[in-house]
Amino acid sequence: MALRTMGVDLGSTTAKAVVVDEAGGIVAHRVVQMGAVSRRGVAAAIDAVLDDAGLERGDLGQVIATGYGRRLVPDVDRTFTEITCHARGVAAMCPGAALVIDIGGQDSKAIRVDEVGLVDDFAMNDRCASGTGRFFEVLARALECRLDDLDDLALAGGQDLEVSSMCATFAETEIISLLAEGEEPTDIAASVHRAVSARTLGLVSRVGRAAPVVMTGGVARSRAAVHFLAESLRAPVIVPAEPQISGAYGAALLGLESLQGETRVIGQAVDREHVHTGQQPNGRDCSTCSLGRAKYQPIDVELWTASIAADRRP
Amino acid sequence: MTTQTGSTVTRMQTTRAGGQMIADYWDNIFTARERGKHVVWYNGSALNPIFQAAGLEWCHGEAFSARLAAQHLEGPAQLAGAEYGYINELCSYSRTHLGCAVLSNGGGPAPGSETGVVDALDQQELASKLPKPDFFVNAYSGCSTGQQWDEMTYRVFGRSIPIFNVSIPFLWGNRPDSTYMAGQEWDEATDYVVGQLRELVTFIEAQTGRPFDWDALSESMSYIRRASELRLEGMALCERKPTPATYWDWVASIAHINFLPGDQALVDYFASVRDEIQARVDAGVPALENERYRLYFDGIMNWNKLGWLAKRFAEYDAAVIAGRYTHSSFWQEPQLIDPEDPLRGMAQHYLLCPINHSLKTLNYLTLRDCERFEIDGLVFHSTRTCRAFTNPQTMLASTAREHLGIPAMFFEGDVADASFYKDDILESRLVAMLESIDVRRAKAGV
Amino acid sequence: MNAILDRLAEVAADPDRYVVEWKRTHPDRKVAGVLPMNFPEELLHAAGFLPVVIQENNEPDTEGRVILAEFYCGYTRNLADQAAKGRLKIYDAFFLADHCVQLLGAADVMRFKQPHTPIFFGQFIASMSEPSTPARVRGELDHIVAEVERSTGVPLDHGRLAESIRLYNRDRALLRAVFDARREGRVHLSSKAMQNLVKSSMVMDKAEHIALLEQLLSDGIESHDPHARVRLHLSGHFCHAPKQALLELFEDCGAEIVDDDLYHGRRYITTDVREDLEPVAALSQWYFDRNVNVPCPTRVQHNADWDTYLTKAVSESGADGVVILMAKFCEPHMLLYPELRKALEAREIPYLLVETEHAGLPMETLRTRVEALVERISRRAAVAAS
């Protein structure tokens, strides 16, 4: 039986599991939505990914858990924090990445990664849910739209309204009062996104800005969130095709490395496996990568700069 | 109960025109280098008459931060500060100003580089405006952070620019004889500050290479004394019901009394302020069309919300008449100034900063002004990053309730960071307080 | 040995109980509550007081929770709460020398809630290098002496003051011996136990504390090999003790604390009062010496800074990283933080900023951050080795 390792990332609202082969390539991956941190959710993700990979639990060389609920995952060989795992996963998915912004259901973090993919510095939000997935749920509820519709709404917004309260508790009242004042939902959605991005910028400023920027986590699936983050960073933001699995993927790779008895330069294992085409800001050729099928979504910075000029109040 | 009749504030013509004096002052600072002037950055006490007499151009750090906030231009400096490492719970005056120092010193990311959050354009915009200092002087009263702030500015500039610290003792009131402007503690503190002001003059002489012009100091202090008297005369007219001018008008004149040059123009300005108020009294023109409540404002100013706040209170027919920030600061005891020998009166005003007193004196000042202006309620601006001003507020509220039977409200905001402001809270608390005033009046049969 | 450590831990955990018990056994003596950081306790000791540095307690803030606004540090808000609950009535007088705007806010609450207990503020000027500062500090000390004499009704005996100074120096020397041994890897006490050593010293009668320390040192402190993966220096917290749950968390995440500059650590014990000077002059000199030995960002002094001290301390202890423990809302710390960060980054010393509060620390999030620091340090070491 060839060597396989699994990474399990138990977050606040989703459980993710990834199985890799001995070269670090992804064999199977799965994201399971949960209501809250749940053992059942993590079991579902593990079962599904094993099923996809055609493996039994006993076939795995190592199981590494990460994420907010990492200590709740049963029968693991060891745990790593999501900081270390995201850095490792992103370095493999996108070699050369210098700054990782991960925004999940209830937390957000900025991780500066060095040239070989080790964590240089990181910052996390404390208890405030501002700018996390939970916050966007509040926004959607206040605007009475589906979470999926928020993107179109926000991207259609023009006017920049003053949104002062970034507290998830107060934001709902504030949004409702903006609606009551007759403001357009599109403008409100765009303005809230802008305010959230400004907060994320605060997190970034704590670790120092660096490029290329890679965004991961559930919120990275939102076109609007990525758009406004890039706008406030005034830099392109790269999003892997599966932005939610980078932590679990990193965990699986760390498991693999511990079995292989060495800590290899991050990205190396993946580089051997994949042909990268397309241009990244660091000159690397990379539009497909680690998964062999993942597509980056490069963001056109000039387009954004123009939209900033158009959107901003004089 | 409380209804919105929607008064609007009739702004004073003089303070509107006075805005130009401030704009001119800053424009003048921005060109100091071209004119070959020495520039001093200072914080805290109004040392400007000393700088004026020494032929310097002076830039007050808090004032510059306040101005940026009032013009909604604080963002880039605060971002530069955040990128440098200042946490957003830090005094927003200081992190805005330190952000300017970072930019002004090119301490931010190299222009055009991709590593900085603040881009080169913003940097140039700000950095080109605020000239680098030739030296710093710090004379912060009350707030311990003030002295540490300039020490950091000194470090941001690579520890290469001279700095002089004047330490202003806190008036704690250790002894039974310690009261407002009296007692052994007051006398000793005065002597100590006077001594340091003399040392400051020696320091400035060394920096400029010129002997200090004591006559020029006397002259400018005589103008300031006169301007202060006129300002107080205008304030006294506001004891009338309805008031002819509001707290917001006095806020609009803070810059003038706090750091504009002591000269005839300053006296003329406050004469015209006083005259306009007198003319309103004579013509029976109130500041608010329908004054129903007379309020006292305790807190440092929320500069980026100033006009908005004035409008908000007026909408509820609430005339904000006096406040700790306006009425217990800024050369407010002109009788202490002896133009022939001005240092002592200056030192005493530095000690009289309204954040340099312990609760005992602040209770005295608050009750005094509430009675004098027949105040119905107190508004406390709980200022997120200004602990010095917020310190005794809940205790002041209980004292006012106990001694005068008047209610109080609190709202959260900040001096220069709008993100700490919660509009809904202000409005609901204001309405609740006005309702309680109504209830009190109904009970009293007023 | 465990009995001694247990006794010190007991006093550290409940200083109020110690004070009440001491008053019971010393009915004719007074207890002085001292606020951090620079008040010379020796003066009070010589006048017959039991000087006690008032500690943050472990109760949730309730009655006094709203007296100071929520943006005050955990210590000052807790002091206000203690005052509101009447917990500070066990003190006969209060003394402080430090001009911190938040601390003075708490002191105002204490005076408001307990108006009949004298609270004396002898302000030690924070700008250390101005020519007028030494004379002013000496003047304030004279005022403090006068207040102490007023309180006791008898003149201060300078011979007894010299004796108190020797006693305090002895206690500090013994504590330093343990701290130095930890730094050199000769003893491995948990950071909680280390905190208890210092915290109990702030509370207990000095002679009693010294006797316990001497016993502890002569018995010897157990040395065992820690399983720690990384060695950390704890930095910050100028006024109150970091929560012990937090200290345990660091160790639980695989770190060993090898040194610190905490007030409840090196900062409190590093500087002795000179015994070769007239005693009051020596206390004045002590104030200036303290800021040279372990500089504090609350002071302004150009030839001494905390960042230089910190990087030097890290290189002496061989710590792999630094945890910066910042009492949330502590302005001097927030002001200096970028300079600390710059100095650590320049030397490639990994660090983690942890902001602390009186209650409700997000322990799971903190665990992630601390573990991430530990992983960051160990992975870097592994890569360097491979």
From TrEMBL, chain A:
Keyword Translocase: no
Domain (ATPase BadF/BadG/BcrA/BcrD type) ranges: 7-255
The protein's name: Benzoyl-CoA reductase
Superkingdom of the organism of origin: Bacteria
Alphabetical UniProt keywords: Iron, Iron-sulfur, Metal-binding
InterPro entries: ATPase_BadF (IPR002731), ATPase_NBD (IPR043129), CoA_E_activase_dom (IPR008275), Dehydratase_Activator_Redct (IPR051805)
Cofactor(s) needed for function: [4Fe-4S] cluster
A Pfam family reported for this protein in Swiss-Prot or TrEMBL: BcrAD_BadFG
Listed GO MF terms: iron-sulfur cluster binding; metal ion binding
UniProtKB/TrEMBL annotation, chain B:
GO terms of molecular function: hydro-lyase activity; iron-sulfur cluster binding; metal ion binding
UniProt superkingdom: Bacteria
UniProtKB keywords: Iron, Iron-sulfur, Metal-binding
Signal peptide feature range: none
InterPro entries: FldB/FldC_alpha/beta
Family statement: Belongs to the FldB/FldC dehydratase alpha/beta subunit family.
Name the UniProt record assigns to this protein: Benzoyl-CoA reductase
From TrEMBL, chain C:
Keyword Iron-sulfur recorded: yes
Keywords: Iron, Iron-sulfur, Metal-binding
A GO molecular function held by the record: metal ion binding
Keyword match Iron: yes
InterPro entries on file: FldB/FldC_alpha/beta
Domain of life where this protein originates: Bacteria
Name the record gives this protein: Benzoyl-CoA reductase
Record organism: Intrasporangium chromatireducens Q5-1
Lineage: Bacteria, Bacillati, Actinomycetota, Actinomycetes, Micrococcales
